[in-house]
Amino acid sequence: MTLDALPAIVITGVIAAAVAYLLTPVAMRVAIRSGAIDNPDSGRRIHVRPIPRAGGLAVVVAFILVGLVALVLQAELELYGGGWRWQPERWFGFQGPATEQVLLAVFGGAALAAAWGFLDDKWQIRARWQFGVQVVLAGFAILLGLQILEINNPLEFLGGVFADDTLVFEGILASLITALWIVGMINSINFIDGLDGLSTGVAIIAALTLGFVSLGFQSSYQLVVALLCAVFAGALLGYLPWNFNPAKVFIGTTGVMVMGYLLAVLAILGSAKVAVALLILGVPIIDTFWIITRRILSGHSPFTPDRGHIHHRLLDLGLSHRGVVLLIYGITALLAVVSLLLAGG
Question: How confident is the model at residue 29 (pLDDT cuts 50, 70, 90)?
Fold first, then answer.
């Protein structure tokens, strides 16, 4: 494992956390003044008083600001040692266009996701338009070179026709798989965003795990992926105290779009991490599959909100709000440990 860069990466994540923590009250004021407020109702919502949405603004600003500054400082001052220079073509280890385009996909895509999310937080746009924007975001990333070209084969242990250790995708198939991955990740985070701090905490665990997996490789580009994961996790961690039960602010569609998009693209920036992300995010992914299947079979739109999510069912069993959140944190952390062991093996 490459650990020389770890101290600087941790410090950068801590700075991102501090920036997000300080920016969250600003995001709350912006949400209130713009009318991005989540009002309680008698249906699926748990809170009993109006709560400002769009807390994700603090997360995305902290991620973009700290992430870009850290990359520039790393290039100019060689913060991480090892004789690194401004050689962006070595940062990411996949076949694709110039790294500047990849960085535009990461940071520009996050900004676009936040901008659309904020519009939804303010005006509550219909689900079909949200889905359309998710497809556009996926297309944006694909056009800039982010594609899933191969993943670890989860059926390798069966042998026979499944004996290959990797699944390789090319052309249109690679683009379709990538689009499905990005759109699916955004919706998985959206569906689990039903309790205070739930989606934020799950995303923190996922980002940290992806970062650790990146450090397990010996290529310099993986260290930059680890840096981005640390900045993202730090920004979420700085925001979490404001969002944990009882929440003072919701992350909103602004944050959901950013979390889903960034988790998807950070996983793509290393083929092994797609399989890792599938395992870490097992709870929201399974919940998403179950909810969509159940709604379609019952003749409803897959985007129709209801109280059928796993966190709602756990609440109905008598668990407390915090108890449900901590339980799902624990399951996600356990899956993260398993994924690290598998990645290390």
Answer: very high
How far apart CA 175 and CA 147 sit, in angstroms, is: 6
| Residue given tokens 């969002």 in the structure block | 243
How far is the CA of 302 from the CAs of 283, 292, 299, in angstroms?
18, 5, 9
pLDDT at 251: 96
Model's pTM, two decimal places? 0.86
Q: Which two tokens stand for residue 239?
A: 């925001």
Contacts of 322 (CB under 8 A, 6+ apart): 245
H or E segment to which residue 52 belongs: strand 51-52
| 283-294 as b/e: b if 16+ CB within 10 A | bbbebbeebbee
Report the alpha-carbon distance of residue 275 to residue 342 in Å, rounded. 10
Distance CA 15, CA 10 (A): 9
> How many residues are present in the chain?
345
Q: Which position has the higher pLDDT, 55 or 193?
A: 55
Q: What is the DSSP pairing of strand 150-152 with strand 37-38?
A: unpaired
> Does the pLDDT of residue 310 top 90, yes or no?
no
What confidence score (pLDDT) does residue 174 get?
A: 93
The residue-averaged pLDDT of 135-151 equals: 92
Q: Express the helix, strand and coil content of the chain in percent, nearest 5 each.
A: 70, 5, 30
